[in-house]
Specification:
The protein is of the alpha+beta class and about 110 residues long. It is about 40% helix and about 20% strand. It has one domain: Alpha-Beta Plaits, CATH 3.30.70. The chain is globular, with a radius of gyration of 17 Å.
Length: about 110
């Protein structure tokens, strides 16, 4: 019985960790801490996101996600829908225009 539990535990750990992928996302149009909060809150709620953290100084998002649930292009499009450039995916114009002035390029 102990061997069965051990085997099932090992298989469970392998299955859970096998599809987690890490990536960095360039957030060139991000301007301030409000941008950081908007992006983090918008992305953390997506299915498949394990960890999402923004480095404001470097203008980069660090993401860990379950590749079987979501892919990088969907994450980039979600950031663009919030009004920010994400890697080579440009911000949606209407979302960008709706951002607070401090979150728009040159807004400080």
């Amino acid at each position: 019985m102990k061997h069965l539990i051990l085997i099932l535990t090992i298989l469970g750990l392998i299955a859970c960790s096998g599809d987690t992928t890490k990536a960095d996302i360039a957030l060139a149009s991000m301007q301030c801490g409000m941008c950081e909060n908007t992006i983090e809150e918008g992305i953390k709620g997506l299915d498949g996101i394990v960890v999402f953290d923004v480095d404001t100084d470097k203008k980069v998002g660090h993401v860990q996600y379950k590749a079987s649930v979501i892919d990088l292009s969907v994450i980039e499009k979600a950031i663009a829908a919030l009004g920010y450039d994400a890697n080579n995916t440009k911000a949606e114009a209407a979302a960008y225009e709706a951002l607070m002035g401090c979150c728009q390029i040159g807004g400080h």
